[in-house]
Amino acid sequence: MGWIILLLFALAAVFSGVAISYIAGAAAVLAFVLTDHSAYLGILPQRIFSQIDVFTFLAMPLFILAGEAMTKGGVTRVLIDLAMLGVGRLKGGLGYVNIASSVFLAGISGSAVADAAATTNTLVPAMVEKGYKADFAAALTAASCVIGPIIPPSIVFIFYGALMNVSVAALFAGGIVPGLLMAVFLFAYNFWVARRENHPGGTGEALPPVFPTLLRALPALLIPVTIVAGIVFGVVTPTEAAAIAVAITLVLVFFYSLLNRNGPRRALVETARLTSQSVERTAMLTGSIFMILFAAAVFGYLMGILRVPDQIASLVQSAGLTSTSYFLLASGIMFAAGMVMDVSMALVLLVPVLIPAAIAGGADPVHVGVVSCLNLTLGLISPPFGGCLMVISSASGVNYLRLSLAILPFLLVQIALLVLLILMPDLTLALPRALGLIR
């Protein structure tokens, strides 16, 4: 009866428009009362601060700041031109450009929503102008932006690594192959649709000039190389790498302003203006993330007191499930939750409860971490409450219901990759093992 009351309270709060972090925090406190554990509430402040007092968490606002500054500094247009240079003359070329641009942006922002916002206003109108259906263009943009949190640097990997005490360097290395496979799967689907729908493209397609495009793009590509290499090879910590990324980003924003024929003085003013806007946006995003962490710390403390992870592990053992079969079941639960929950909230609420049983059964922590993060990220493009779908629908003008229907074939392709990654752990673990990050 108590849990029914808790569920009704949460539903009422959701429909009233209250922020999800407040709902989760209030529901967790109410759960302490309903389960007769209110005596533990006095220690909650200490538990909350111990949960977020993690040095690695400092990397998140810095990576967000770097991504925001790069987006506002015109890097999106530069990377789209680079993608156009590589694949623009293929049939269905703008579809390939859409996917390739997300791969390039993934190495800078680490955020699906940021990539969706950055590419929608540029690519969707360009695709529609060339003759693509607006629904397809918007859905492809949504599907490809999921690559962002998987190819490092990844904010969600930092989140998971700090939460589950897993090497962020190993997670970064483990995300490279799955992220590239995601691009390959989307390339294959775009190839099939381009021929079925007779999409435009071919040798007659106009391309941006080669040398100016490379001049603008190559400095931007140094950022992910520097970050990933520094973390993976142990030269810098994730937080130090994020600080370096911010410094390089500000230099590049100034450089791009100079290339736009602004004088040094005007370039400095422009860089300062963009930095100020980026800092303001970063502060808002970081505040919302840490509010979710506060709420999740309360809920996680209760799950520990009730020994829920131990109970799940006992059920798995008594049912005779293998680590793979259990992980498939847990992934189904996480995917369903991701359809209606914020990624950060789903991560901190579900992962500490569901994943320890998989690891106890023999699954590799890096493998389940990468796959779980990909799984929950797919919730951003899953109806009915996909965050990226909402951003792209608003920015492109495509009706949300039509976009939700158009995304379904892409989502099926990505779910197929998710299942493949679960069944073949070596696809994720081969690179971290080769680099000596895991055994």
TrEMBL record:
Q: What does this protein do?
A: Part of the tripartite ATP-independent periplasmic (TRAP) transport system.
Q: What is this protein called?
A: TRAP transporter large permease protein
Q: Which GO terms describe its cellular component?
A: plasma membrane
Q: How does it assemble?
A: The complex comprises the extracytoplasmic solute receptor protein and the two transmembrane proteins.
Give the membrane topology, semicolon-separated if more than one: Multi-pass membrane protein
Q: In this protein, which residues make up the domain named TRAP C4-dicarboxylate transport system permease DctM subunit?
A: 8-426
Family statement drawn from the similarity comment of this UniProt entry = Belongs to the TRAP transporter large permease family.
Q: Where in the cell is it found?
A: Cell inner membrane
**Mind telling me which residue stretches traverse the membrane in this protein?**
47-66, 136-162, 168-192, 213-235, 241-259, 283-306, 312-336, 343-363, 369-391, 403-424
Pfam families per record: DctM
Species source reads: Neptunicoccus cionae
Where does it mainly reside? membrane
**Molecular function per GO:** transmembrane transporter activity
What UniProt keywords apply to this chain's record, in alphabetical order? Cell inner membrane, Cell membrane, Membrane, Transmembrane, Transmembrane helix, Transport
